[in-house]
Write a structure and sequence with these properties.
single chain, about 210 residues, alpha/beta, TIM Barrel, eight-stranded parallel β-barrel, 8 helices
């Protein structure tokens, strides 16, 4: 049986650095996330760099990688571990800059199966299915689970699938996908988010996964 699915956290879109770190710290302390994906907003490079550096200090303290959304040009300057691209358009450029530095390059925004195969063939470290679209909408859960199961069955490049709720996170783990990704609001109904995350993590690692 395959190893249990591992976890990736989408950091909250929080422009205040202190508030971001205060929200992230108890979450990454509660369960062993492999990576945290951080949106980088604004136009002031110094502010963006300081924001990412502060987040990196919190995340990396708990042995998780910090991945910046699209801002691959800031990875080396912030100490981040890589980039999470929201589409294929700049994959070649990101790979040319980050691969010599041994940094992570993951890709989402893959609308078709061919897009995912193209990303993997180019050298992406992972492909992601099911993440929120630019307008905030989400693909159907059934389509995400089908795509994750198809990929995990056939390809070596790791697969990440985004889950919107606990039940879907468990279903993702059962597809054989290497990673389950989610945002903090997956446990929004709980008064104790870290405790709820611990419970969810235990269920995920116990999920039945297909033989490979």
């Amino acid at each position: 049986m395959s190893d249990a699915a591992r976890l990736i956290l989408f950091a909250p879109s929080e422009e205040n650095t202190d508030a971001l770190c205060a929200r992230l710290s108890p979450l990454v302390e509660a369960v062993p996330f492999d990576a945290v994906i951080l949106p980088i907003t604004g136009s002031d490079d110094r502010a963006r760099i300081n924001h990412a550096k502060s987040a990196a200090a919190v995340v990396q303290k708990h042995n998780a990688a910090l991945l910046l959304v699209d801002a691959f040009e800031l990875v080396a300057r912030t100490g981040a571990d890589g980039v999470h691209l929201s589409g294929l358009a700049r994959l070649t450029e990101a790979l040319s800059i980050l691969k010599p530095l041994d940094r992570i390059v993951g890709v989402a925004g893959l609308k078709a199966r061919h897009d995912a195969m193209e990303a993997a063939e180019a050298g992406a470290d992972y492909v992601m299915f099911g993440e929120p679209r630019a307008d905030g909408s989400l693909p159907a859960s059934s389509a995400v689970l089908e795509r994750a199961a198809w990929w995990a069955e056939l390809f070596q490049t790791p697969c990440v699938a985004f889950a919107t709720e606990s039940e879907m996170a468990i279903a993702v783990a059962e597809t054989g996908a290497e990673f389950v990704a989610f945002a903090p609001d997956i446990v929004a109904s709980s008064n104790d988010a870290p405790k709820a995350l611990k419970t969810l993590h235990q269920v995920i690692i116990s999920a039945h996964r297909p033989e490979r």
